[in-house]
Amino acid sequence: MDFQAKLENLRSKPDHIKRRYAFWSSLSFTSLVFVFWISSFASWGSTTTPVVAEAVNRAGSPGQSMVAAVGSFFVDIKDMVFGPKKMSYSNIEVLPGK
Question: Taking the complete model, does pTM exceed 0.90, yes or no?
Answer without folding.
Answer: no
